[in-house]
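discrete fold record:
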Amino acid sequence: MKSTDAGQQRLAWSVRLPLWILLASWVLFGLGTATEYGYGAHKNVASQVFVLCLTAIIPIIGRVILDRRRRWWPPLAEMLDRHSAAIDGISTTRIGWWIALAAGVGLFAELALIRFHGSCFQLFAFFKNLSLLSCFLGLGIGYTLGDRRRIFTPLVLPGMALQILFLHGLRFTDIADTLHNPIREELALGLTQMEDVMHVLTAYGFLICVFCINALCFIPLGHLAARMMGRTARLPAYSWNLAGSLAGVLIFYVLSYAWTGPIIWMAVLVLLLLPFLRGILSRALLAGSAVMILGVLGWNPSVDQYDVYSPYQILSIVLSKDPHPQIKVNHVYFQKILDLSSTAQQKNNDIAIAARYYGLPYQFKHEPADVMIVGAGTGNDVASALRHSAGHVDGVEIDPAILHFGRMLHPEQPYSSPRVDAHVQDARAFIRYTPQKYDLIVFGLLDSHTLLTSLSGVRLDSYIYTTDCFRDARAKLKDGGVICLTFVMLTPEIGRKLFLMLKEAFGGVEPVVFQTDYDGGYSFVIGEHLPPQMRTSAVAGLKLETTFSDNRIIADPSTDDWPFFYMGVRKYPVTYVTMILVMLAVSAVFIWPLFSNAKESNPSAMFSAPCFFLGAGFMLLETKAITELALDYGSTWVVTAIVITAILIMAFLANLLLLRIGRLRPAIAYGLLLASLALSLVFAILRLPPGTWGGPLPAAIASTAIITLPLFFAGLAFSTELSNAPSAGVALGSNLMGAMLGGCLEYNSMYFGYRSLYIIALVIYALAFATSLRRKRQAPSPDFCG
């Protein structure tokens, strides 16, 4: 009796620890914000109210709720027990469809919350895997719980409602400025960097708080899927799980294609959860949470601002603060839509200065026949090309919403001209595959505030600012053609990087740099036959800048393997490592309750080491596939969607193959996996030119096949291990927790380059094979062949 009481006491404390961490992070965040922003007339009302809630009101309310838990917990526990019984009472006749629905809900919610986090704060674009890892942690714990009695699905929406209220309210305060870029290794235009201890407390307290809340929200979703899967044979159940995950991905990407926002995402999530919630109280809780979520997301105090969610980011059009419409990306200034016509220039000197800046490229190429605008945006560069009598203009813009605003709002209507072709495409892919040659290639200001995917550190513009891209662009110039690139210099090292990359791409020819009078930009002009006088005198009233030719400025050029343009030099990302260690420590506290119950005398029954390492390796391969295929097909959301869809299909086919052939020796699955991974590594190192394969299309097909082949064999290895794991839930839970490790290891690419992920993946998969061999041999499960 005493041992049972001690076990229950240990379990109670282990469950409370995550809540204590959540409270501690909240206090940390409150301390930082109170010190940084405090109270005063110079602060806006929203910031002062938020600080007051952080430092006083919310902790008091939380304490009162905990003190009265004996009143509210018994009826809540009774509701959860009835819900769990209803889930267990679902007929097994269509259990596959229920498994698919449960898995689809989990993946859809994961994609929606990750997008929502990124649309609230830039911080989630820098700590790129944090949202994803918190989802993996919650789902992994939920899957591992498996047949534990009580399922907390009715509390998912209330937890998300609190999270959405917190983040959506915070984005309209002054505190949001602190949460844009709290790191030292990378820079971004106009974003505050980490400066002092209080800034660190604010940012890290905020991150830990969001990490904990989000993980807690996803535990019930993983538990629900595991409970469904436990009612049928493992491999068929896994097939239904993959099918449901694929459906969840497709639904979310269809909504992204339609430019929908969080209100629609959350409404769809409510509909997907509804079939699982039985009973009046459960559905009342769902309805109340849904009303709260939709009401909060519908609130916007900025009456002069119109928000649109493109497939990549949230775009805000601000109409009243300036005569010219202003565009924000993820709540940070991006660009203005300017009227630079001759009439407007005569009326406003500032407009004349801006027009001189946009007209600089045409001082080197008068009346060019063919012009490419990289990063055409809302059309300022395109309009300038038309004013300078360009014969034909190809405007390349990756975000369809930005292009839409240009067509709708630009006063000069440049996209309506018959001389302009607008291309919604990744600029790198367009440069690589266009057969056209150009007199002038203009690189607009492509400072992207958005990642291609939460799986990697590649921004939408990462593969534009590399030596390899500038070399490709040079190959698209006509004889005597010119490249003009403008950028706002964050540090001398960034300017030096651009200088070195252009110089290397043009075989030692140095670019000419001019300091512009508009937005603090610098224009780099380079071509093989620039007139000598252009290198020695001012052009269009703009003075020469020689700072970036100084050899004493140390900078490392960006390449396709190391496309981190905003890092001046290669240095190990200490800020990221610190956050990773904190997240791993928090995760350990969350995971510990799984092994603390005295009833579980064998901890190995709750964990599968091979599945853990397979998850870590698979995460690295998925990252590598997306980043490499972005070079072949473009860094677009469509490419990302297709790759993730293909990965799920390959895992499904691998599982189906195992169902067909029966038992497979692990040595065969791992041997094929390691061999295909080694082949991909050799291919990545050689990176043969398209002509090797007979043209761009065969090259892209060959590249895709070689890059994605290891993913199929990784799926085959996991399906093999699934049959030998303690349960399907434990296998998937261990796999997701391993994916967290893979997400942390991916940060090594910021120092070693993306090619290094192959080496790390080889080591990880070797560990998976080694732990598989060490595992005590078990007889095949009766349900192995379904």
The chain has a mean pLDDT of 82. The longest strand covers residues 477-488. The two ends are 42 Å apart (CA to CA). The first helix runs from residue 2 to 37.
